[in-house]
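Saturday, quiet lab. Running sequence design on the structure tokens for the scaffold JK sent over.
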């Protein structure tokens, strides 16, 4: 889904522009023998989050995201509500979007 170079660009941006700390890279093995790199770190509010770094030209389906949630949860032994996507544009800028697992009721 991504490569280590893209993940490192997003990692540096999180550290120097967004004041994240304790960021590590987690390698997840895919069924087609490729590796997806997920970043795990603490945002400025000391909340631990998982980040998927991708290039803007990469297509990601709902099925891809569902499998990613499952892989992270089984690998880390946790249950996730959301993943932060760091999308690198062609000009080098990075946009961040949250992807929630399933449909979320925001009135709770």
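Result came back. Writing it out in full:
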């Amino acid at each position: 889904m991504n490569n280590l170079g893209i993940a490192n660009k997003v990692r540096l941006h999180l550290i120097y522009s967004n004041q994240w700390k304790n960021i590590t890279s987690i390698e997840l093995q895919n069924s087609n023998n490729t590796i997806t790199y997920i970043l795990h770190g603490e945002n400025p509010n000391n909340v631990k989050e998982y980040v998927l770094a991708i290039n803007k030209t990469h297509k990601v389906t709902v099925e891809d995201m569902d499998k990613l949630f499952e892989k992270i949860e089984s690998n880390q032994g946790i249950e996730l509500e959301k993943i932060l996507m760091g999308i690198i544009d062609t000009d080098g800028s990075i946009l961040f979007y949250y992807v929630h697992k399933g449909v979320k009721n925001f009135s709770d």
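Notes for JK: The radius of gyration is 13 Å. The helical segments are 4-16, 62-76. Ask whether to fix the surface positions before the next round.
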